[in-house]
């Protein structure tokens, strides 16, 4: 154990056995099966809310529509005055105020928050029917401004995404953001809703038969796609090519890590002392694999690594002895040369 460093002497040592591989696999599966039922649902019609701008047209009554507001805004001025007017003028249409109401001629204050476009149109038609004969009303959301989600991390176009009449699923939000970049880790997607984080592993969801399109986002959700660089594994010691490896969508086995590093160095590596150093909270756990034992290859393939794991291959006693001698001999040789050739 001394070949693996002094830090490992204080850690818990666990030999990698078929039983441990099975137990670790069950524990990992339990961690991946986080309850995301609160995120799943079916698309529902868009509900109007405060801040939305409605376009309302009453047929055969142009004086009641918002076209007059539009015309006024267009004739506000020319040149610099027109530019200033365009940026300061309110949007054409009927804005839903903070109480969820709009003010409409004859109908007065109409509560539309929480209603679909069809429900709001029917309500306005009923109110206008008291003053107009068989009014025909067209109502639609002209500008969606009440509900938003934020997409951050490894996407091409991070930023705010407005929820509109197209249901805002997780896949829709990622698509509007330009898709996940090659540097993004699709197994490390976090959705924050009302202070609670939900970890989403897209490949794992598909494997379990869950359609990612059924994850519906709500107003105020924050979606973050983590970088693959946050899930690196470090391979050091007596391997052919020590390096930092990125996990493949959150998965990398011990066998794959050794293979991508060229394997155990045949000249200096001790195949019986292959260690995986893992920090678990404030504790440190060290797993040891005897690569010369029967079934070692199968155990290495079944043992999945975690982000920030360190794979370390110790040197053979002979390699350690050769290195010690190489450090001692040059100093001894220098002393001998100094005796034979004293300074004049």
UniProtKB/TrEMBL annotation:
Domain Polysaccharide export protein N-terminal: 42-141
Family matches, as InterPro entries: Poly_export, Poly_export_N, SLBB_dom
Keyword Lipoprotein listed: yes
Main location: membrane
Localization of this protein: Cell outer membrane
Membrane-spanning residues: none
Entry keywords, A to Z: Cell outer membrane, Ion transport, Lipoprotein, Membrane, Palmitate, Polysaccharide transport, Porin, Signal, Sugar transport, Transmembrane, Transmembrane beta strand, Transport
Keyword Lipid biosynthesis on entry: no
SLBB domain boundaries: 147-225, 232-313
Membrane topology: Multi-pass membrane protein
Region (Disordered): 69-89
Family assignment from sequence similarity: Belongs to the BexD/CtrA/VexA family.
UniProt cross-references to PANTHER family, sorted A to Z: POLYSACCHARIDE EXPORT PROTEIN GFCE-RELATED (PTHR33619)
Protein name per UniProt: Polysaccharide biosynthesis/export family protein
Provenance organism: Noviherbaspirillum album
């Amino acid at each position: 154990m001394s070949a693996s460093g002094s830090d490992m002497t204080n850690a818990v040592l666990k030999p990698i056995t078929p039983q441990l591989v099975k137990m670790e696999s069950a524990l990992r599966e339990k961690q991946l099966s986080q309850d995301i039922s609160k995120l799943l649902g079916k698309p529902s019609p868009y509900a109007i809310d405060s801040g939305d701008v409605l376009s309302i047209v009453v047929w055969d009554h142009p004086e009641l529509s918002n076209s007059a507001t539009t015309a006024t805004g267009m004739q506000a001025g020319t040149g610099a005055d027109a530019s200033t007017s365009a940026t300061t003028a309110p949007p054409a249409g009927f804005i839903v105020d903070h109480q969820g109401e709009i003010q409409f001629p004859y109908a007065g204050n109409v509560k539309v928050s929480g209603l679909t476009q069809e429900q709001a149109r029917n309500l306005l038609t009923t109110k206008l029917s008291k003053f107009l004969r068989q009014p025909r009303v067209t109502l639609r959301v002209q500008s969606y401004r009440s509900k938003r989600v934020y997409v951050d991390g490894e996407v091409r176009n991070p930023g705010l995404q407005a929820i509109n009449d197209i249901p805002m699923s997780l896949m829709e939000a990622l698509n509007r953001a330009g898709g996940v970049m090659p540097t993004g880790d699709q197994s490390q997607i976090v959705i924050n809703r009302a202070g609670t984080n939900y970890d989403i592993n897209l490949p794992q969801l598909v494997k379990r038969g869950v359609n990612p399109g059924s994850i519906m986002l709500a107003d105020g959700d924050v979606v973050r796609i983590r970088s693959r660089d946050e899930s690196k594994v470090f391979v050091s010691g007596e391997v052919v090519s020590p390096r930092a490896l990125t996990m493949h969508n959150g998965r990398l086995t011990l066998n794959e890590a050794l293979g991508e590093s060229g394997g155990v160095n045949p000249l200096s590596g001790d195949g019986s002392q292959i260690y995986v150093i893992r920090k678990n909270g404030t504790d440190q756990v060290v797993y040891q694999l005897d690569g010369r034992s029967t079934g070692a290859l199968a155990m290495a393939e079944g043992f999945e690594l975690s982000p920030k794991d360190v794979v370390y291959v110790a040197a053979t006693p002979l390699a350690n002895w050769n290195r010690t001698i190489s450090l001692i001999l040059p100093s001894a040789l220098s002393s001998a040369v100094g005796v034979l050739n004293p300074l004049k």
